[in-house]
Amino acid sequence: MASEIAAPIALMKRLSINPDVSDLLEAIKLGSRREHFTKPFEFTSEQICTFTDMFDKRNLIGPTQFGEVYRGKICEGMSGSKAKNVIVKRWDEKSDPLVGKDEYLMVKAQVMFLTDASVVDHPNLVNVIGYCCDEQVRGVVYDLDPVDTLHNMMLKDDFTWLRRIKVALGFLRLLEFLHGHDKPYLVFNIDACHIMLDQEFNPILFDFGLMSGGIIGELSYPKKFIYMSLGYVDPFFVDTGMRHDLSCDVFSYGVILIELIAKIAIDLEKSVKLMDLPDERAKLVYKPGFSLVQESLEKDPGYDATDGPMISNLAMRCVEYFPENRPTMKEVVEQLEGLRVVKLHGDGLGPSN
Q1: pLDDT digits (tens, 9 = 90+) for 18-31
Q2: CA 241 from chain center: how many Å?
Q3: Spatial distance between the Cα atoms of 191 and 64, rounded to a whole number of angstroms
Q4: Which of 152, 121, 151, 127 is nearest to 140 (CA)?
């Protein structure tokens, strides 16, 4: 199955772009409806390169589905503020099938979404400082000084049980928020590589290149031909070719939850086989009443033995093959909030301001 995840690039390059989103940069320049909102800066490629030391590999945090993300630093006064650490995401040729005639479409769409008044204050969405649409660089600068990506943290011992539950709960509440709009947002390419952990271990979503709904509009024609991130692909929609819906995000969240509690991660350095996928590994060992929680995490402060089977069952329900057997995001929130660890440590598991 893993070998089938790549879509035919030649076909996608011939696809046209939805005209409704062909001129999003003008919407960005109009700014937010909030009076106190600061418009994103339009940086040059030279400035972006300065922030990242010419995209030095020592500043590389990791890959995204359509590019890479780097640590950077903005000098005092350059963005109207004091010097600050940032992250810089740039798109590469992997995004070409999505953009058609407008090679900057991905940049424009993400900045437009993040500056919309309906989402701009959410604590688990990244804040945008500026963007670059030069010929040399397609990128966005985000106001974030993270610990690391969730993917890079998955196997680390200092990523404790309480921190993992904080991430699971915070990201879940973000998805519930996005799904709860009048025109629900479908993230569609949920991936541990697309979630940063800030210094307080709050999960921050910073990449959503296949998102649809809300201000972005319906899933565009090119996006329908590109699969979700490797390891998080909903097998039902791959096998049937049916229309994607919010249950795809539920499936991908279930994979994230399995990784968090079982302390496993997809190895990006090797070719991934079907049985390497977190949900497939979990299905091999799971049975009702069984806990997928990794043994070392059971020894962490805050772990309660009754939570193991409950959170494992929840994760396995999310990755059910048939979408109708999966819970809604609201139902997942209710069940996760029912864990003893959440009831006992709830105040410490919310976003830190």
Answers
A1: 333 333 333 334 33
A2: 23
A3: 9
A4: 127
Q: Which two tokens stand for residue 113?
A: 């979404």
Q: Between the CA of residue 178 and those of 34, 72, 242, what are the distances in Å?
A: 19, 28, 22
Tokens of 158: 């200092």
A 10 A CB-CB count for 246 gives: 19
DSSP, res 273: P
Longest dimension (CA), the chain: 58
Q: What is the pLDDT of residues 312-327, one digit of tens each?
A: 999 999 999 999 999 9
Tokens for 137? Answer: 């660089």
How far, rounded to the nearest angstrom, does the alpha carbon of residue 55 sit from its chain's CA centroid? 22
Instruction: Please write the tens of the pLDDT for every residue from 221-231.
Output: 566 667 778 88
Name residue, tokens 């690039």: 9
Whole-prediction pTM:
0.86
**53-62, 130-139, 147-156, 306-315: least confident range:** 130-139
**Residue 226 vs residues 22, 37, 64, 108, 154: alpha-carbon distances, Å:** 19, 34, 14, 19, 26
What does each C-alpha distance from 42 to 46, 72, 73, 76, 80 come to in angstroms? 12, 16, 16, 17, 13
Best CA proximity match to 73, nearest among 138, 132, 129: 129
Cβ(165)–Cβ(342) below 8 Å: yes
Contacts of 272 by beta carbon, 8 Å cutoff, 6+ apart: 2, 230, 231, 266
Sign of CA dihedral 331, 335, 338, 343: negative
Radius of gyration of the chain from Cα atoms?
20
Confidence of residue 98 (pLDDT cuts 50, 70, 90): low
